Every structure is written in structure tokens, then in C-alpha cells.
Amino acid sequence: MSAFSDSGYRLLDFWRIMIEWLLRCLCHKVFIRDKITICVSKGGRLVLPAQVRQSLGIKEGDRLTLRIADQAIVLQPRHAALQTVRALVRQRVPEGESLVDTLIATRRQEAQADDR
Fold it and tell me: How many secondary structure helices (H) and strands (E) does the chain include?
């Protein structure tokens, strides 16, 4: 193997490592691919690592929604949980229909029925 091809392989390897590092830095804001192990401390407390808090925009004092799904604990920032619920409601409620107006109309009908 010539010196040129050996240095060419090293150069390709260098660029491969640099591209992987750059992609990890860019994708870090969107998701964390690595599994992270945390410990439950006294009183059942968990500490979320800084990279998790940063990637999800969680700040001190923020409220999280906790649910259990398939024997796993799912923690969501409250704003993300609200977006999930809103999306589920929009799947069931036709566009342009107001749930508030429907609820008020239903309550009025019930009140009128009770008055009779």
C-alpha cells in the first residue's frame, strides 16, 4: 500500500468521524439516540441529565406529565402533552366545530328539559 493511499484512508476516516460528530451535534436538539441510565435516589427522586433537559426545553420549575405505557415511564413537558391531546381531539372533532359552543348548547337543552 502506498503512502498516498494510506494517508487517503486516514483522511477519509477523519472526515467520517467529523461528519458523525457534526450530525450528532445538529441532531442533539431534536432527539437523543443514546440510552441514558439514571438512578432513583432517596424519596423516589430522579435527576434528568442536562442534555435531556436542554433538548426538550425543560427548565427548573417546569411541570412534566408522567404516564405509564407498556411498562415504561413516559415523561413529557406539559406543552408537549397538551399538543398531543389537542391533536387527538382534532382527529375526532370536525374542522370549524367548536367544542365550547356544542357544550353550551347541550347544557341549555338539558336545562330546558329539566324545567319542563
Answer: 4, 2
Of 74, 72, 28, nearest to 51 by C-alpha is 28
Give the domain ranges of the chain.
1-30, 31-115
In this prediction the pTM is 0.45
Neighbour count for residue 34 (Cβ, 10 Å):
6
d(CA 79, CA 62): 10
pLDDT at res. 4: 46
pLDDT 10s digits, 40-88: 888 988 888 888 888 888 889 988 888 888 888 888 888 877 888 888 7
Residues of the chain with pLDDT > 90, as a percent, come to: 0
Residue reference for cell 498516498? 4
User: Residue 75's beta-bridge partner residues?
Assistant: 66
Architecture of domain 31-115: Ribbon (2.10)
User: What single DSSP character describes residue 71?
Assistant: T
**DSSP-assigned letter for residue 34:** S
